[in-house]
Amino acid sequence: MTNSWNDIQYSDCIMIMGSNAAENHPISFKWVNESRVKRGAKLISVDPRFTRTSATADHYVRLRSGTDIAFMGGMINWAIENNRINIDYVRDYTDAAYLVNPDFKGPIDLDGVFSGLKDGKYDKSTWNYQVDENGIPKQDPTLQDPNCVFQLLKRHYSRYNLKLVSTICGGDPKEYEQVYDVYTSTYKPDKSGVIMYAMGTTQHTYGSQNVRIFAMMQLLLGNIGVMGGGVAALRGESNVQGSTDHAALFHILPGYLKAPNASQQSLQKYLEDTTPKSNDPKSANWWGNTPKYAVSLLKAWWQDVPQDQAYMYLPKNQDGVNYSIIPLYGAMASGKIKGLFCWGMNPAVSTPSSRMVRRALTKLDWLVAADLWETETSAFWQKEAGVNPADIKTEVFLLPAASSVEKEGSVANSGRWAQWRYKAVDAPGHAEDDLWIMTQIVTRLKALYAKEGGAFPDPILNLTWKFGKPNKPSSREVAKEINGYFIVDKEIVNAATGEVTKFKAGDMVPGFALLQDDGSTCSGNWLYCNSVSNTENKMMKRDPSDPTGLGFYHNWSWCWPVNRRVLYNRASVDSQGKPFAPDKPVIWWDGFTKSWKGDVPDGPWPPDAKYPFIMIPHGHGQLYAVGMADGPFPEHYEPLETQVQNFMSSQQVSPVLTRWDKKAKEETCDPLIAEGCIAAIYGTEDSKDYPIICSTYRVTEHWQTGQMTRWLPWLAELVPHQFVEISEELAREKGIINGQKVRITSIRNIEGVEAYAMVTPRLKPFVIKDKTYHMVGTTWHFGYKGLVTGGIMNDLTPFIGDPNTMIPEYKAFLVNIEKA
Amino acid sequence: MSAHEENMVRITDVEERVVHWVLAASCIFCVITGLGLMFHAWSIIPTMLGGYYATKLMHIYSGVVFGGMLVYSYYMWKKDCEFEESDLQWVLKAGGYLWPVKDLPPVYKYNAGQKAFFWCLIACGIIILVTGLFMWLWNPVMVPVVLARIMYMLHAGAVVVLAAFIMIHIYLGTAGNPGTVSAMITGYVSKAWCQTHCPRWYADRNKKAE
Amino acid sequence: MAEYIKLIDISKCTGCRGCQVACKNWNSLPAEKTTFTGSLQNPKDLSYNTWTLIRFDEIVKDGKLRWIMRHDACMHCDWPACVKACPSPGALTKTDEGAVVHNTTYCIGCKACIAACPFDIPRNDPALEKMAKCSLCYDRITEGKLPACVTACNTGSLTFGLKEDMVEKAHKRAEAIGGTVYPNNPKYQTHVLYVLPAGITAADLSHTNPNPSMPLSVLLWKNLFKPFTLIGIGAVAGGAFLHYLTKGPHKVHEKKEEGGE
């Protein structure tokens, strides 16, 4: 989230799309309702299903699963046509005025693809901005130049007219127009709207572009950086923000530093490649500080080793190779991966085509699972999993782990608030907290390497692990390392004022601006620098007062970066530092004291001294994003598995997908994997057997794979069975009555998964060009362990991911359904 | 035969007397416990009986006994209590209880008042029995609440009628008609009593005896 | 003693069922072994161990689909039929705060309250011969705490406060959203109020009583038959005594076998 949960109360219009916030983020509705009661805000729900969110919304429109870009492209087009954009904001704070390489061609010229497409990948050489002799992008502030971003965008979305969009989405054009009208009414400078999204947006083969188009819409309406605005990514787990911040991902290091590649064989090369540059004096280009953050991170991990050498310890990704969860199981099946740690994770249920994943697990030599209960993953070898335990050679260790209330640590919520949680009770039996388990492993590994040697022991032997005694490690010590401290005594001179500040070795670094690239500071995550001071752990703050009176609650927990509650808040004020929305300002410039008031500003500089989007190299919000693997503008494509032709262009699916199904056919993959990653492609014979669109989702009452909730009697009683939501029309067609058992099949699982039919008017078939398309929906909460059990729906889901993030396409795939 | 016995007529047999008293005892016990449950002010009754739950159980089980005896008595006395034409005359003259009546139609074994009491007992008793069984055994999940409400109400409603009738019965069986109570104790009443209260039956009996 | 009201604003309810679980949590009620009911509503109904239930109603009205989630629990009537019907003192009590509280210690399992309740709320356990229902968390509110369900509600749908404040709040909110207050009957007041969203009436929803009242059967039973049982007995006894005094006992006249044969 660019803002925070309680900031939603300042919104004038809330659009929930690709999210069922009422069900999956129930607490958000405290603030949604607050804004509706206090500000008269309107709530819009855009969803293929009529959900609990839709039930409480002022406006509900439905769209076929996977047509978000068409719907939002339609909104952009409608907004431009009806002058519903905040033109001053767009001109001054976004890259709308930037000129793009005249050789750049878009889908409007190239029938659905962008220039540079070659072998299923984009060569982005034609995508760049035109720059002047200083390397600063050329601009046309009149926004009239045909090569300026604004004109390109306008032209690109001119095709997304109401008629075509409603045809693609399968909705009512009148309703769409009404929603466009309501939402774009927030274009006025003193109004703001927020888009709340979650996995319904991201879990597509163009999921990143779905998010992009939300960000673009918000930039066009001037809704970024303001109160009640922003793009609200609703994180699906209480601490998933923390897990991405601290990089539980293959492509980044903590603090969103890029993961090094094999071609970057020295620290210098890595820093050169990953540090963006800008010669524009008004661009803060905050990522220009990458060397300070990267070096401090290396010093946090290997304090006693020079940073250049420490860099060599880092594992490197092979260039161009993807290490996401999807290829991971291929590597497992082919025996490349021999051991697996599953830490509070249940891939046997959660991963796409999970039956195949369970087979891949059988190829492991060992599996270590740390969990509260025995999960389907740690029990993949048992009879309930449908296998013969005698056939499985994998050695499985189940480490009983402590739950969140049985250990101490921080949790970072969607609004980036890192909140300290204390231990409430002792964990039962032999259950231990994760830090203890990890410390034991590290300590014992170090001892083993010291004793026996082995291949490349240095990274482990030299690893800095100063979190207290091995049998009593403290997460407070971890928090200190994450914040960072001075390794040696250091004097820092403020370049602007000439003031000298002296720090002693061991002092906490007060903020990331003071992190050093010479190895004198360490910081486990630069974003969290400022969270712990010499005297206090700010994440423990629980002062419910609100000194600014604006709902920031700066003394309640701590928020990255540097306790700033609204990101890009310099975009909420004009060039004089006056807020666009005087009744709900984020920051304002006090001309008398020459300082900012309100929230922690995005940098101390006076108004207009720097562009507001400080994390972007050139300082402007990006309507046009070169960084995307699948095009600078989001373009509508169909899901990999669909029954509907792409009416926007003849490019049926995203042209830059990694097609595991094709690889499977070419038998370049392991045969185990081959069976699990085939797909029912549009227009093929295969797709005719699976005519129904299916989407998976969660319900309030269960959590993820149900590994925790299905063991709790009070939650198990609420949703005791796997079910599939079916429209009354489809039920009539198939002779299915409510509560009957049905079997859902996909091309990856022709035996099918059983579930109970929930026949409901909340689902309706989509009629597109006189053809009827049915859709069903089901949860992925069930498995074969727990107080209540049920079919694993991810046995059906396709093995395909977004080209940017490899997030699997759980939200739109093809199935068939029959009475069981 | 003693002189005394010569003067007496056996009017009830053992079976009748046993049934009468079991029925009467269970009925009165039900009334007492029922009143104890109905009037919170009379908590002395449930308290003496070991609490409200125990009282409920006693009420139910004595109700079961009452119900059994009720059914038994129905088959035992229904013949004797069939109405006949002359009963109407008897009723119109209030059985001679309220004003002097000369030509009261001769009664067979039971007069119309007794018969009415019997049928009232049967009718109200059946209502109380059926509603009581319902209240004891009904499953709220299966039964419409409207029916349940009618049942609880009827149970109480039938008691109003029956309790009043029982009081009349007791008065007329004791103080109101001296010499009657022995019919349900020894089984014998005096010949004179028979002449007065059941002349036709008495004549019939004598005829048979001859 | 102040009277309280629990206000349920349906327009703010998202059916998360936090209240349903919080109720079980505070009152230590065991989970039920449930089956698939064909909707998200589960357990299917209130029970001895489920005092609070979110009911899910799919309503198509004027061509528009509505999905109403309703927090269903005891309405805490001002003139509670259950208390009136209850034979065992202390088993059901209306407190000064407005809560209708049950006490299983005194409950004798007669099910009279179940038959009496105009909202079909009390539930019994046939094996235990006890009834149970929502107590408005009487044990919490007398300690200055909110009922467990209100504490758990995050959307602002459930609120709790002084009677006058809540009545005013309910009507204001109903006016603001074009909805109605239910039950809105000055003759039949409850300590639970609903704000129903625009276009939805109590009759559209499952398990409601659009016109709640003390059931006629309970009135007849308790206000008529109950006194008349005693009046009847007394009247007869009095009548008999009077008869005895005025007319005297019906004497048997010793006559000698006159005219019989």
Overview of this protein structure:
The complex is a heterotrimer of chains A (820), B (210) and C (261). Chain A is α/β, with parallel strands linked by helices. In chain A, the strands form eleven sheets. Chain A has a six-stranded mixed β-barrel. Chain B has 210 residues and is mostly helical. Chain B has one domain: Fumarate Reductase Cytochrome B subunit (Up-down Bundle). Helices cover 68% and strands 3% of the residues of chain B. In chain B, helix 2 (14-38) packs antiparallel against helix 4 and helix 4 (52-77) packs across helix 6. Chain C is an alpha+beta fold and 261 residues long. Chain C has a single domain, classed as Alpha-Beta Plaits, CATH 3.30.70.20. Chain C contains seven helices and ten strands. The model of chain C is unreliable at 256-261 (pLDDT under 50). The chains are: A alpha/beta (820), B mainly alpha (210), C alpha+beta (261).
- State the strand order across the main sheet of chain B: 1-2
List low-confidence stretches of chain B.
none
Order of helices and strands of chain C: EHEEHEEHEEHHEHEEH
CATH class of chain C: Alpha Beta
Q: For the record, what CATH class of chain B applies? A: Mainly Alpha
Number of strands of chain B: 2
CATH superfamily label of chain B? Transmembrane di-heme cytochromes, Chain C
CATH topology of chain B: Fumarate Reductase Cytochrome B subunit
